[in-house]
């Protein structure tokens, strides 16, 4: 494979900036162009729900950098790709490429019906600023969704003194972290004033503009602030007709190749294709995966072997001010082995051993380096 004369990266966030940096680290001296739709330029999303909602000064330290890499940045939105002619079209012009890295991430899943106004979500810096402003004078809040993001938004409401109720059919984080940790998390959140409403089916948004949540039995819960935290969808609209995306996103192999010559993908927009039928294809839209795939995609563009795999099973979140770090396969089920501490006391090191010899390690409110957790999990 010859080194491409130019690399085009669409998506100026974690996966895209990681890929650009890795290309330079690997010695690529050719032209790199990055197309990004957000006027703010690249920034890190995890602090949006952990600090930005609580602290206006947190906006200033979200940077992901591209300015030291000698890349051209075009702040515009890609609208299509012609993989035969190797051209990406955008709102402001078109961009030819030798190699393309798709890194357009995901957007918040919305559940408002067409025409229903005022749905609030959290995906971008603008979303976070809007929510933060609304929290300032809200006397009550409802968060729809008890996943990672919903629990973080609820934690921010509680920290700011806004009474908050989390509505979901599932118990908090139970689907990924299992019943044992879900119970500990729920107890901690309740102690900090977060209330839970266990819906017996899918809830919808009530009011226009949105002012509450309608439960399957017709009951409507209302609040000053209603935030939908119902997952995210890959940003693939611009790839329509190219054959590069399906309902799950952009399918990639272990080299982050899409299978279309010259086209690679990384980050939240992707899913790893089934591995010889043994692994169901699944999205894993987390920070560490976007970094791993940005690096792998860059190496593959240059025809080099990647330094690591395109997946990384490190994940972290925060529940009512308590940090939870996880290394290892998810979901976990059943009782863990407590290696240290006790979740009830807000500090524990827990492991779930699997039949295949691997472990999942969780540092629950405990300061432990990721390297130490990786060593325990392997
Ligand atoms: C509030 C929040 C908190 C999070 N917390 C955690 C956490 O604690 N731990 C964790 O592991 N993960 C967390 N994540 C997930 C993590 O941030 C993502 O996995 C990561 O941002 C993925 O990076 P990405 O570059 O693939 O996609 P994104 O960050 O989604 O970036 C994609 C970029 O592409 C741009 N784009 C989209 N379409 C186009 C187009 N057509 N043309 C040009 N540009 C386009 C978008 O505007 C965006 O800037 C969190 C996410 C959010 C939203």
UniProtKB/TrEMBL annotation:
Keywords: FAD, Flavoprotein, Oxidoreductase. It comes from the Bacteria. InterPro entries: FAD-oxidoreductase/Apoptosis (IPR050446), FAD/NAD-bd_sf (IPR036188), FAD/NAD-binding_dom (IPR023753). Coiled coil: none annotated. Pfam families: Pyr_redox_2. Residues 6-294 form the FAD/NAD(P)-binding domain. Its cofactor is FAD. This is FAD-dependent oxidoreductase. The lineage of its organism: Bacteria, Bacillati, Actinomycetota, Actinomycetes, Streptosporangiales.
